[in-house]
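Predict structure. Chain length: 365.
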Amino acid sequence: MMSGRPKLTLSVIKIDPGGFVGHVSTHPDVVDAAKERLFSAKEKGRITDFHVLRCGNDIDLVVSHYAGLLSDDIKELATGTFNECIEVARELKLSAPEVRETGGPEAGKDGPALAEIGFVERESEPVVVFMSNKTTRGAWNLPIYKIFADPFNTVGLVLDPEMFEGFSFKVLDVKDGTEVMLSTPADIYAILTLVGISSRYVISSVVRNSDGEAAAAVCTSRLAPGGQVALSGDNPLAVMRCQAGLPAVGEVMESFVLPHLVEGWMGGVHSGPLMPVPFYEANPTRFDGPPRLIGAGFQVSNGRLIGPHDMFDDPSFDESRRLANTITEYMRRHGPFQPHLLSHTERGHRTLPIVINRLKQRFGR
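Prediction complete.
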């Protein structure tokens, strides 16, 4: 690491402004509104660089700046861009421009979701930003564990002296809002015990043990009214720094070969495979799915975001996509039965209380 250089912050912001058509994609006019807002911010010097990407019906803003983590200026920019996109979506009558993670008509006021990572640029600074759609916050637990703790995925854990001391995982308990820092390899079984229950325990960040260098950040928060930060759920973001004492780009990508099962899909209450796709295939139409994942690669140069490179536009992931389709076919055959349908205790079954109330006089011993 070079001393005396300012710390750059990479902020990745998710906006769900409303679907086109249904919940498949979003309209180009909404994307343009986001680009115009960020271009103006760059012209005024508020940010260093930006890119606007899309995954399904979500818009993802990748922004570099030197304002630091949870900067009030960046929060204001994110919220302003969010509101402007919502207004365009309303004019176009896009699907559910005001329905958010809380599910009610006022939930549109909850604001955009946010993932941030701060670092001093190295001589070469490759970063991969992962964006998802039709899934929930625990979706990154398995691949992040494989990237930073499994030498069968990341051989650098045993070959690279800078990684030999392992990594520490900050794990969030979404039920009570508490966090715990666990270190590999010493706490590896404790980590697995928690993060395997991905509906409750979520990896929120990863740092290198040898020097505390930031390695990864996951979206677990959103910007609530008044600039407050609250827990976020749907369609999380993840940011990974790569190479030179951190997992190689290829090791990061290897963790997504398996289209593992995640919560989400239709209505956010089904299980399905997380399908890695190139940008142009991030259009979930079958039962609003299956859940999608895209990867945008950047080389960071003096705050500039050189890219993006479409990381899953690679035939070596064709088999992963075929497997995801096979899993999709299998899961869909379950219809409204578990395990395709999530447990009502995990995501809420809105119909169940109504049915129980109607039938309460007919229940008996």
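Summary: Confidence is low (pLDDT under 50) at residues 99-109.
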